[in-house]
């Protein structure tokens, strides 16, 4: 890629051939040495909501893979399937947004939305259900009328930046899009990064390698919006947001 962003060639990633799999989400370390992807078996699973996803972590220097398996939705088991993933800069922690689910008749899975974390994700693989709890989001934020749509961990692993759809406490009206940052330690109050009254849709959230700047896709009744967050404002970027499905730094 040139300095102006022009792609001059495409090179295969060692270990990156994912034939026969549906890729839902991707994350990478800033130096590209590790890439993580959420995958489903087959190109078109018949029932995506009941199909456990896996997370594959690829060491692009060697092509080696670590596979973290999603738990099967069997009776009596609560599963923690990843909604989205992000990596710390050193690749030593992989965080994923999840919500406890169970599938048998009459089952109720409590606990609300969580961020869970895998330590040394490129080593060995295992079960996603074994990931430790990094943050219980219902405890960090008033989410009774809102949903966390996406989350990214900071490069040093000390904070989480969340895209929240719906009103948080003190926000009027049902339609609200917020980007907030919470410390993993829980020792400090959440910090507002951006708020959009009348925000009624979510597209994407992406952080730059420093973890200080963000790209956001959202929208109102007047149409979609996509741009860079700066000083509490969403600064529109080209192309037309109607044409944009995702942006990354």
Structure explained in plain terms:
The protein has a five-stranded mixed beta sheet with strand order 1-2-3-4-8, with no helix packed on it. The chain has one helix spanning 137-140, and strands at residues 21-28, 34-41, 54-59, 65-69, 84-87, 93-98, 114-119, 126-127, 132-136, 147-153, 159-165, 176-183, 191-197, 201-207, 214-220, 223-230, 233-236. With 249 residues, it is an all-beta fold. The two termini are 13 Å apart. 2% of the residues lie in helices and 42% in strands.
Q: What is the helix fraction of residues, given as a range?
A: under 10%
Mean pLDDT: 90
> How many angstroms does the end-to-end distance come to?
13 Å
Q: Would you list the SSEs in sequence order as H and E?
A: EEEEEEEEEHEEEEEEEE
As a whole number of angstroms, the C-alpha radius of gyration is 18 Å
Can you count the beta strands?
Answer: 17
The biggest beta sheet, please? Answer: 5 strands, mixed
- Weakly predicted, low-confidence segments: none
Query: Structural class of the helices, strands and pairings?
Result: mainly beta
Shape summary: globular
Number of helical segments with 4 or more residues: 1
């Amino acid at each position: 890629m040139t300095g102006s962003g022009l792609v001059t060639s495409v090179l295969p990633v060692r270990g990156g051939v994912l034939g026969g799999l549906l890729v839902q989400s991707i994350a990478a370390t800033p130096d590209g040495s590790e890439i993580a992807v959420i995958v489903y078996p087959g190109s078109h699973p018949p029932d995506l909501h009941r199909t456990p996803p896996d997370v594959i972590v690829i060491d692009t220097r060697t092509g080696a893979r670590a596979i973290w398996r999603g738990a099967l939705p069997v009776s009596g088991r609560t599963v923690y399937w990843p909604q989205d993933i992000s990596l710390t800069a050193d690749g030593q922690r992989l965080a994923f947004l999840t919500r406890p689910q169970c599938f048998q008749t009459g089952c109720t899975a409590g606990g609300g939305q969580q961020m869970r974390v895998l330590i040394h994700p490129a080593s060995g693989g295992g079960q996603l259900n074994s990931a430790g709890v990094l943050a219980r989001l219902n405890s960090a934020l008033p989410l009774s009328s809102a949903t966390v749509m996406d989350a990214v961990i900071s490069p040093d692993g000390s904070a989480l930046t969340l895209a929240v759809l719906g009103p948080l406490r003190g926000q009027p009206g049902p339609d609200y899009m917020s980007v907030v940052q919470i410390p993993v330690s829980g020792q400090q109050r959440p910090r507002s990064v951006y708020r959009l009254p009348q925000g009624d849709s979510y597209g994407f959230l992406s952080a730059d390698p420093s973890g200080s700047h963000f790209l956001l896709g959202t929208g109102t009744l007047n149409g979609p919006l996509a741009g860079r967050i700066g000083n509490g404002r969403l600064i529109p970027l080209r192309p037309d947001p109607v044409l944009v499905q995702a942006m990354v730094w």
